[in-house]
Each structure stands twice: as C-alpha cells, then as structure tokens.
Amino acid sequence: MKQIKLCCLLLFISFGAFSQQFLRPQDWKKYKKEVFFSTGTANFLGDLGGRPKQGTDYSPADLNFNQTRTAFGVGARYRITKKISVAGKLDYLVVKGDDASGDKYRKARNLNFKSNIFEFSARVEAGFQRTKKGGGHYGVQRNYAKYKNINQGIYGFIGIGVFYYNPKGKIPGTNNYVELRPLHTEGQGLPGGPKQYSRFSVCIPVGVFYKVTIKKKWSFGAEFCYRKTFTDYIDDVAGSYYDPVKLSNAYGPLSAQMSNPYKPDASLGQKISDTYPAADGTPAQRGDKQKDVYLSLQVTLGYTFKKAKKSARLRSKF
C-alpha cells in the first residue's frame, strides 16, 4: 500500500513538473514591454585624430582611447516572439578627434573637433535567452527555486537612425571652441566648393548586447553599437583645402584660420605649399571620401512590465 501511495505521489510530482515545463515556454508573452537606460562611452572614426599610425584610419585599430567621451541612452523594447524584439532608442553621445594624436601627416594638418550627437534609432533584435537551473538529487527543488528567476540572454541587432551633430573646433592658441559649419571651412557655397552640409544625417546602427534578467522584471547588461553613417562631415572635414583669401573675404579671417592651421615639419619634407593647389589647379587634399563612423559601449539597466491579468466577468444566475 505504501509503495502504491509513493508511486502515485511521484507520478503527481512528475506530472506537475511536466506541466510547468509545458507552460513555461509561453511565459514570455506576459513580459513583452520593457524600458531601459544606458550609460557609457563613445568614440569616433573619421578623418581627424586616431592613433599615431599610418594607414589605419576608419579601422577599430585606429581608435584613440584618450579621445573617448560620454554616452547616455534611454529606450523601449517590445517582444514580438520569444527570440525577436523591436526597440526604439534615444542616445546622447559626445565624440572628439584631434590630429595632435595622429600620425605625422595628421599632426601637420593640425585640425581638431568635438561634437554632441543626438540620435534616435529603431532596430530589430534577435537572440536567445536561457534560464539558469539548479541540479542535484535532493537539492533540485531548492536550487531550482533559487535560480529559476535568473535569465541570461545575448542578442544581435540592426536598425536605422537619424542623428543631429554640430562640429566645433578649438581656435588655435586658445581653449575656446567655435562652431565650424557657419565658417564654411572647405568653401561650401563658394564657386568650385561643395554645397553646404546638413546637421542632420542617417546612420545604420549594428551591434550586440548581453543582459541578465532577475525575477523576469529587472535586467542589467552591456551593449556595443557601431554606427555606419551617410555623412563625412561629423568632424567638418571631407574634401579639399579652399583658397584662404576667398574664405576670408566671404566669411571672415576666422574661417581661413580654422580651415588651414597647417604646421609643416621641415625634417619630414613638409612645407607650407603642401596645402596649395597643384600646377593644374587641383586643390590639395584635406580629407578623404569615406563616411564617418561613431560607436559606443554602454552598460544597461531595464525594467519589464508584466501583462495585467484580465478580470473574469461575473456570470448572471438569471
């Protein structure tokens, strides 16, 4: 009789455990909406700054960590399926670049910039989440109760964003910064110069994040995001040097000064005429045609809202 009771008890426990396992895969539907905050660092890959090495511009190998600045973000996430989510995020980032940290040619060019970036992006995320479970004979239930509410996940994402930027440069010999766009430093709007660039542009954010969720509501983790942009003017440098006399006449002497603070090193064969047009009239190169990149590494804190239970309707007895 005792053996029969024991078998029934074991069957009941097994059935209950099986039922939990059967229902648990759908449990994510109760936790679809999440808000999250992030803070960390931002960096820039473009024409200016970089490490004192030649030929590595726009590569992560050219990142100058001394130019790393601040990043903050806030966002919301909605789970479509257990493994796929969509998210919207607003980021504030500070990026900076200075030729003083670059190779010998960039040092001679002697340009610098900093810019605040305000970015809004929408993205699709995909990945997996795993629940940490306990184990061991008599400790199964105790360990499971301890770990069942700890979930770990890793996700990749890609999206599209729009951002605002406004490059500023330090006036030579001072610690004062001035907005560079109004100075038309590459002859924007003048004969033979490019058209004026917009302070708004589009980016493609691509990245990965890892997070740990506790009790299905609170989460923390880390996020890395790389942005490919469609502008070459985050640092105000993209094309060629423009005639300083014409710049000064059109936009004032500060325009000519910020456009070309060149400091040649005679020991390297550099000379002032390096920034003059060639004999055929071709202007001297100031930047290149590759589009700018900026990136961030942030820690995150999130909160997930549990779906409210629907109240049962009272049935009338009549």
Could you describe the 3D structure shown?
The protein has 318 residues and is an alpha+beta fold. It has a single domain, classed as Porin. 16% of the residues lie in helices and 38% in strands. It contains five helices and ten strands; from the N terminus they run αβββαβαβββββααβ. It has helices at 2-23, 104-109, 140-147, 244-251, 253-259, and strands at 33-45, 69-79, 84-98, 112-131, 150-164, 168-170, 177-179, 200-214, 218-229, 293-305. The protein has an eight-stranded antiparallel beta barrel. The chain has a two-stranded antiparallel ribbon with strand order 6-7. It is elongated.
Topology of helices and strands:
Layout: H1 2-23, E1 33-45, E2 69-79, E3 84-98, H2 104-109, E4 112-131, H3 140-147, E5 150-164, E6 168-170, E7 177-179, E8 200-214, E9 218-229, H4 244-251, H5 253-259, E10 293-305
Antiparallel strand pairs: 1-2, 1-10, 2-3, 3-4, 4-5, 5-8, 6-7, 8-9, 9-10
Helix pairs in contact: 4-5
